[in-house]
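Example A, followed by Example B.
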Amino acid sequence: MADIILLIIVAAVAALLLTIRSNAILVFFALCAGNTLVLFASRNFAYVNGHINNHLMPHNYVVAKPSILIGLLFAPPILVAALAKHNNGPSKWPIQIFPALATGILGILFVTPLLTASLQASLTHNKFWTLLVKYQIAVVALCIAVSLFFLIMSTYAKHTPKKHHKGKI
């Protein structure tokens, strides 16, 4: 059952990015930036936690560590997806589908360790997760390579000079 849930999450992320016609390549790299933010916030979590809970939240409300880290992870990609929506037309689907799927896969790899122990246990005891973790270096490298490839392809397509035909006089 957890296999199906993980696959549905990956498909839902890809479908959402394609539906809002956001630039999935930029969202993918924003997710990587969010993970970098989480890594640095985890090192000095007492400061981050104190600042968020003391200055940004109402006095009787305390945000737990997993919630803060998940918020930091997903803030950059959500912001980029919102700002870059309606940036691509349906003709860009072939270029966007693979980075959109890579975003979903990488999102699962990044968010699962941040979840509570019970949620982690319910998601990680399945064949899909075992394969994903076993080959995570290859999966992450492939996701980055695919996103970089399509970024280069989309940039190259925008900058190719168009031939102008002179009309007969």
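Example B, a separate protein, is given below in the same form.
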Amino acid sequence: MNDGIAVTVSIAALMPLPLNGMGVGYTCGSLAKGMADPEFGVTIVAPRSRWPLSPVEVVEVLPAWARYAPYKWVEPWARSRIEDALLTCIDRLQPESTAAYLWPDASIETLRELKRRNVTVFREQFNCHTATAKRILDLAYERLGVTPQHGITARRIDHEVQVSEAVDHIFAPSPLVASSLLENGVARGKVLNATYGWDACRLAGDRTLIPSIEGITAIFVGAICVRKGAHLLLEYWARSGVRGRLVLAGELEPIIKEKCASLLSRDDVLVLNYFKDIGSLYRSADIFMFPSLEEGSPLVIYEACGSGLPILTTPMGAGWIIRPHREGIVLDPYDAPGWIDAIRLLAEDHELRRRMSITAAERSKSLTWATVARQRRRQITDCLTGHATAVPSQCGGGVSPAAARVPTENSLSAPKF
């Protein structure tokens, strides 16, 4: 509904990765499932899907015989056909209320064709603009004394600039993602501030993964890589000297394995490979630490809040979610003394951890996928029907974009939740 008038909207999302309930596909599918209703149709065009998303319609590009093959074998075939499948999907939807939703890109040729058909195009900016990311990561690898290994090229940056110019609206799920867009010339009017969410069912259960020990258990979940500041966390943990253990769960980047070998081999550091029951790890922890250098809006932060964990993170990790000294502590990733002091504080102050735990769990209640998806649905509907989506005043959430030294505009405001 919009101003009392029933509006039928159809969106077709281009998701170039398999829908398997993980990664970017999980974020796309979770939002889509929450947005879809009788007045708001959602179709996802993807290579294949092994995830029931009803009432979302899923168009699988791969033929039936190829949907169970290792994806790397059939990926070129899927990529060569997926944009044509998107255009075919758009053709059968109602043109007066149809939008394309890119996760995150399409070719310039497809974008031109969408504009020729007068289709409104949304883009999901699930990480910072690549030019900003390159600047941040170049510095990080330089500080490690190694050649940058992020894979961001001038051609990739140029393509993102062209895509950003061609689309109509861009969802920015954190203040620093929004700032990175503005920093790279995207018009403020295109940027739609948003958040992601979490699913309590994904964390359900009462089993703990690892037994309790004397001292605290601090966890990190995600790729154990330079981009997420894993090398910094290992250093800060060792220098803090607190009693307990640090658990890192994720895929280990080779350069971290090489440069941090002595820190990874410490008796109070445990590295875990990927496993499905992530809730059991959160239930094993006392605090969640995430010193990310470049992000979008990391889902692990939402899940850690939902698990009632005090958070120690950076402005990139905090997004709109973590308010300093309420749900956690937010620090510059390179502030070594600050991180070491914060680790010691959280390790020693049980009452502080208890207060932050309660606040984090309470805040997470307004960040479920269902709630966040309703906000997205309203934003898309307002854009398609010519109604300006109101930008709420600051709600006290997150960290100001200036905290990470990324230029912004004074009008940048938090979503309301």
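On Example B: The mean pLDDT is 90.
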